[in-house]
Each structure stands twice: as structure tokens, then as C-alpha cells.
Amino acid sequence: MVRQPYLKKGTWSHDEDQKLIAYIRKYGIWNWNEMPKFAGLQRSGKSCRLRWMNYLRPNIRRGNFSREEEETIIHLQKTLGNRWSAIAARLPQRTDNDIKNYWNTRLKKRIMGEKKNSSSATTETKSSMEENSSDADSSMMVDILLDYQIPTMDDFPELAVYATFST
DNA sequence: AAGCGGTGCAACCGCTTCTAT
DNA sequence: CATAGAAGCGGTTGCACCGCT
């Protein structure tokens, strides 16, 4: 039995963030399992990867989701299901974890509430709602989203320093 | 001011998929 | 083709924070 070295868990400190950023800037991403050792971090590769992908990576937008983003998430969740990474691929600068959290904590509740309301609503209200979100509209929306060109590093020249090791 | 409950988010866990040999 | 290791993914949990009483 090989004793596992002590691996820290829980919230990342500023110092750990800096170490990971500095290491990736210098050497890029080559092997998540080996990297933490060399970066001087007592973290699992998984933990480093998650931290980088969801928080430290450049081009990440955090906080308030716009109305458009909300609608996009709702539409895509409807058509793709809980495939958060696929949904995230259509929402530039948002991470799958962020989208998942946003869905679970806010949108799901809202959708549930709307469903309850619509099931008790008059048929008139229902039909007007259906006009607004017909299947045709939904599939058109999805087509548009699927055609969306995900920005590349070329779109962010000021971040060229990261270009050698993105994704 | 203190206690409490609800909320949101960061991070972990376990499983699946991908890739290299 | 089989296998092992790495990477990716989605569900879930734990905790910090905030507002209310």
C-alpha cells in the first residue's frame, strides 16, 4: 500500500490560486495529476483542474446572468437536458458549474413556479403563452444557438499569454 | 445583539468517456 | 482489441453569508 500524500481539501486560498496561475502561465497544462506537485500545491489534480476551469481560467464571466443568457439556458435545458457542458459551450464565458448552479438554485424553481401557474391558468392565458414559446420557435432558437461560433483566443488578443495552453 | 433559517456558490465524489499504449 | 490512466461530467454536499425575527 502506497501512502497517499496529504491532500488539502476545501476552499482555495489566494496563495494557492496564485501558485496555480503562475505555474500554468509558465508551463501550461500538461498533466493535471502531476502538476500540483510541481506547482507546490497539496491538492489533487482533480481539484486543480476544477479550480482552473471554473474560476481561474481567463475569459470567465462571473455573477449576474443576463436575460438572454437565462432564456438560452432554459431553452437548451429543455432540448438537451442536464448536459451542462454542452449548454456551457453555447454560452461564452460561462462555466458548466456556474450554469448548473444557476439552474439548480434559481431557474428550476422559477420554471416549477411557472408550470404550476400555467397548469392553473385559463385556457386563454395558456394559448397566449404557447404563442410565445411554440415548438417552432424553440427549435429555431436552438438552431441559432447551435450555429453560434464559440470565440477563440484570437478574439481576446490581450489574453494571448494563455493561448498556448487553452483547453 | 443573538439566534435561526434560507440561499447561493465553491468544491468534492463517483461515474463515464476518451486516449494512449 | 484490451487495458490503464487521464480527463470530463453531473449530482450532491458543506459552508459562508444575509436577512428576518
From TrEMBL:
HTH myb-type domain segment(s): 4-56, 57-111
Subcellular location, record wording: Nucleus
Region of interest called Disordered, as start-end residue ranges on this chain: 113-136
One Gene Ontology CC term in the entry: nucleus
SMART domains: SANT
GO molecular function: DNA binding
Keywords: DNA-binding, Nucleus, Repeat
Signal sequence, start to end: none
Limits of the Myb-like domain: 4-56, 57-107
Pfam annotation, one family: Myb_DNA-bind_6
Name of the molecule in the record: Uncharacterized protein
Species this chain originates from: Gossypium gossypioides
